[in-house]
Amino acid sequence: MRIVFVILLLTLSKLLLAQNGAVIGKVTDDLEKQPLEYATVALRSTADSSLITGTITNTEGEFILEKIPFGSYYLVVDFIGFRSTVINDVNLSADQPSFNASAIELKTGSELTELEVTGEKSLIENHIDKKIFNASQSEVSKGGNGIDLMRTVPLITVDENDNISLRGDANVTIFIDGRPSAIPIADLLKQIPASSIDKVELITNPSAKYDPEGTSGIINIILKKEKMVGFNGTFSTSFGYSKFHKTNNSLALNYRNKKWNVSSTMGLSNRKIWFGGDLDRDVLLGDTLWDRLRQTDYGERSNTGLSGSLGIDYFLNDKNTLYASYSINHGQNDGERLVNYTNIDENGATLSYSERLGIIDVPSNNQTLNFGWQKTFKNPGHTLDLDVNLSSYGSLADERLTQDYFINDDVVATTYQNTLSDNRFDTYLAKLDYVYPINDSTKLEAGFHFTHRKGQIDFYSESGIAEDSISPDTALINDFSYTQDVYAPYITLSKQFGKFSAKAGIRAEQTNTLSHLITTDDKFTNDYFMLFPSVYLSYKFNETTEMQLSYGKRINRPEQQQLNPFTNYSDPLVLQTGNPFLQPEVIHVNELNFTKYWKKFNINASGYYRLINNLIRRNLSYSGVQSTVSYTNLGKSSLYGGDLILTVTPVKGVRIMSTTNVWNTATNDPEFSNGETINLMGLTSSLTVSGRFGKGWSAQLWSSITPKQTVLQGSIIPNYGAGFAVGKSILNNKGRLTLSFIDVFKTRRFGFEATPLPHYTFTSNRRWESRSAYVSFSYSFGKVVQGKKKRATKDNDSSDDISIPDMQ
């Protein structure tokens, strides 16, 4: 076997192209010098720690990595029960196209006494088409849930309602493991422990292979998956304290042999928070003050989540894998909110006072079935993937409202209202993806994607002045459904010319939609066809300097509520109605990226420009003191901005990362600017300091700030926060104990000051239980048995790279 391996190496060396190299080696244990089969070997870039390629060792403990671009790298070798070993200075060039790592001896876990920092994965990795935030490197978020983690990701902001924005834009598509989810993403992330998230991909200008939905791009949240052979697993638990207690618990199990891989996860979370705020609103009738409202509120909300999943891979042979998985999430949300309404005159005297108590109960269920087939061909990177994902979500919001009206301190009247909102959302996705490497420098990708989405909101309301005399509110009852089918073939071609590389593609989408106001049996169809081209150009000046230029076309489809033609009278002063004839916004995105690496300092700078046509605008009309909000397509807007990521390693084991994003939107809106172009600026900035020390200790400080931001309807007050964490590896490095603090100074808040309108002005401030302390513990266990190479995951389903094992 050894002779065959050497002959293979010599043959391989002769076949190497001018720009490609190879790495070989053998992995053994350090005591008995026995070969270790199925050890994972990952080759990473010295510049930014990004994964270049990876493999597992054969029965003799040997491995070969080939077709590697010339450059500087390091090897990371892992095997369960043994110490992770790093091989530095893996340099490939035309003069030395191959590197022999010789015998790599792994030490058993019991001998570990100090955590190595050499070759540590970066918190942020930069790729040609995306930035990757390695959540496993973030100590601050451990203990919280997925929303807590998202608040620490560079370029991402989360508002007071847990809405997620990328580069300041909330029109972003969010995937879990490369797939859409029927469950609202904020609700799902509240049920996912932060410790279960492996990494977050930020794809700001996706290629034609991706779903073009979302103005600012795609956020792909990738969950952790066990990659070791045999039976193994990880248990995680955390306990949080603020005004109310919080807990997140998860268990992941995995077993793999030569033919099967079976995985299972279970999770249980419980979280309770308080929230509150105030609002001031003036309504004018001509020049006369008609109504001045002062509103304050306080509420408490609890969320309990129970989740489970079961996945099976069946390895037919070395070239074919069948897989299937099923997951279920059950959520229980309960809350109370007390709102105080005070109407006053111009002199501040109270005209009326009332209190409204709302008690809400919202059970929810989400089920997802995923199955598929993966085919690999003889040539490396030649693959065919069929993937089907069926996701269904339902929630039933039952709210009981009681409003008391006071004169002095006496209740003079009481009204009752009961509402029931039955929400159902289904998302079905089928994808066929084909990758064909024409040669070492040219790759063809083609495929077909079909997406079916259906949502239905059935809202019922009843009210009365006595609990025994309640009747239906016909002006509020409304049942609306929306169906969307998208048929999308695509093709891309990439080519490398020495230091220059290019990729071009086009995606065609036929979209068929049906809006159905079931209450009146009115139906509206809106079908359209669009082409989405994309172009990437990249030039690598040297091993440490690269520049990229890209263009893409995207789409922002109207939200379901914007299409619902039913007029909502829940606020008698501000009516709301949708427009079923709304067209999608069309966005042209241009982006320029520059990356430069030094020994202790890295810089990644991006500039971007977006032109948005067919802009969806809010239309406000007046009738006396009553206003009506609707939606229309009118005009266009443009946005230009830039982000800067600086990484400094002043001393061994310490890394400082600064991220800043600034943007300016130029728009004209008759409602707010009298048709003149106005410029709206925004900025976000964050700073992370991470340190890894001897004996398994680590620490991290994190802070972010969003200065006062001007938006079309007014301005948002500054918002900032900070957190820190300390962690320690224990139990022979199988366990990890972490103490973390989120929003240490209790500064997180949201405030809005509206631009005064002729008939309407208001300001609002919101606070919530943002400061928490967490104690977290995780423990990994397992036993090595013979297994088989795991199928390529669908994490990077829309990746521009050829599928390779995702080693850690």
TrEMBL record:
<protein>
    <submittedName>
        <fullName>Vitamin B12 transporter BtuB</fullName>
    </submittedName>
</protein>
<dbReference type="InterPro" id="IPR037066">
    <property type="entry name" value="Plug_dom_sf"/>
</dbReference>
<dbReference type="GO" id="GO:0009279">
    <property type="term" value="C:cell outer membrane"/>
</dbReference>
<dbReference type="InterPro" id="IPR041700">
    <property type="entry name" value="OMP_b-brl_3"/>
</dbReference>
<feature type="domain" description="Outer membrane protein beta-barrel">
    <location>
        <begin position="375"/>
        <end position="779"/>
    </location>
</feature>
<keyword id="KW-0472">Membrane</keyword>
<dbReference type="InterPro" id="IPR036942">
    <property type="entry name" value="Beta-barrel_TonB_sf"/>
</dbReference>
<dbReference type="InterPro" id="IPR008969">
    <property type="entry name" value="CarboxyPept-like_regulatory"/>
</dbReference>
<keyword id="KW-0998">Cell outer membrane</keyword>
<dbReference type="Pfam" id="PF13620">
    <property type="entry name" value="CarboxypepD_reg"/>
</dbReference>
<dbReference type="Pfam" id="PF14905">
    <property type="entry name" value="OMP_b-brl_3"/>
</dbReference>
